[in-house]
Amino acid sequence: MYDMRQSWIPAYFRYKPMYGLIRTTSRSESENYFFSQFHQCGSTLSEFYIRFESAMDKQRNETKRLNHECASAKPVTVSKLFLEDDAAELYTRAIFYKIQEEILAARDDMRIQTIVPEVNGMKCYEMKDVKIKDKIFQVEVSKTHANCSCKKFLMCGIPCRHAFCALNHFEVVKIPRRLVLNRWMKNAENKASLKDFGISDEHQNKESVSAELTNKPAGDITIHPPLQCKNKGSGLKRLRSEREKAVDKLKKMKRQCKLCNFVVHDKRTCPQNMKVAGAKVQAKVQTELSVAGAEVETEVAEMLH
Q: Given strand 122-129, what is the order of strands in its sheet?
């Protein structure tokens, strides 16, 4: 696995467009969860078709609702930067909140270290994040583009906080359109292309993606099974129903009273035991009274003599 780290560790995909959004099972698990709310295992073909149409109607209705929210209302801006106002006009609600987080971090957490003089309309900034120690980020900025060494825009499709800090210092009031993907915009097209932003869209081809993901590393790799693997449902007891718990509870031997062999109480709370104890206490009291009476009579007789 370590020798194959370049095939599965996300840090190695920094230079692959949009590869930061790829997860192995998140897409299929999300899809299975959505359709499981409408379908059942024993559904017939006609029932499956009707419920599938209901699921599609729900998705369409949700899309219309989100589109209406984006078109009818503007999200609340926190900072007084023009970049945030421009982002509120361009992006959908969910993406805007991510962009807003980057803009606020650019305002509060970024510290510019050095600035290279402008050459051919391009400036180079070196800045530091106060929350990350011993890390310097380099950002190249112009009026129409920004390129950061963290490669967040290449991985996730949204500009990073370092780029926003440099753009704000460079007095750019609107986000460069080369940093705005169609898929995040309110008026998104059916298919977003990255060619307009100077990025090749070959990664959208199925053949190229399949070749990239199935590329086997050179040499022989031997992977041994782990010594212990606790997967879901492996080595764990089956969850029992309430009925099974009740049946097992009835099968258990209940404690019986040693005096009367009754199962409701034990020896300490047995009525017979309480009667015996009361009789013993009464006998003890009578004995003490008789002894005390004899002592009193003896004293009286001595006083008379």
A: 110-119, 122-129, 136-141, 146-148
Tens-digit pLDDT profile for residues 62-110: 888 888 888 888 888 888 889 999 999 889 889 999 999 999 999 999 9
CB contact at 8 A, 155 and 20: yes
* Residue 37 to residue 58: CA distance in whole angstroms: 11
3-state secondary structure of 156: helix
Q: What's the count of helices (H) and strands (E) in the chain, helices before strands?
A: 9, 4
Q: Distances from the Cα of 165 to the Cαs of 81, 87, 130, 160, in angstroms?
A: 11, 15, 13, 9
Convert 116-127 to b/e letters by CB count within 10 Å (16 or more is b). eeeeeeebbbbb
- Number of Cβ within 10 Å of residue 170's Cβ equals 17
Regions of the chain where pLDDT drops below 50: 190-194, 196-199, 203
The answer to whether 127 touches 161, Cβ cutoff 8 Å, is: no
